[in-house]
Give the backbone structure.
Amino acid sequence: MYELDAAVTHAINSVAGSNALIDLVMIWASIIGVPLLVLAVAGQWWRRGDRQHTRHVLIAAGLSFLLGLALNQLVLLFVHRMRPYDAGVTHLLLASSVDPSFPSDHATAAFAIAAAFLLHKMHRLGFWFLAAAALVMVSRVYVGTHYVSDVLGGALTGTIAAMAVRAFYREGTRADRLITGIL
């Protein structure tokens, strides 16, 4: 299975360096994709319409984001995967990282946000966030920082986190009304 993962990762990363514009887009998506998603989520706080539901979803997205990254820390207690550039699979377009490769925190964060919106039936925004999350995932492989399985694992972790938050953070509860009533 590693051979397939490495081959697909190498195939995606092998395009890097052949087109300056695509390289620039992928580098920027990799670096600022998640912070832009967080800003896009935060900007929805004052959105018109069903403000109570929107704010509930925003809080759920934030909790999913945090839970997903916490789950990644648990995974890292057991899995210490070498980065693909250290294994000679990819060439790196960014600064190297000292963190283990699996799972991708960027993919986890982006997918936690997208999944939270989709699970809470804010489909239009959810699909935009999903498209952005997919771009972040591809960019992380393209720039050489992750294997394909790293970003897929991150997407799974983010989705599981969003599902857990959906199950336990209920809309309309006293805590929800208190949090969403702020500002």
Notes: The radius of gyration is 17 Å. The chain has one domain: 2-180. The mean pLDDT is 91. Helices lie at 2-13, 20-42, 51-76, 105-119, 123-142, 148-168, 174-180.
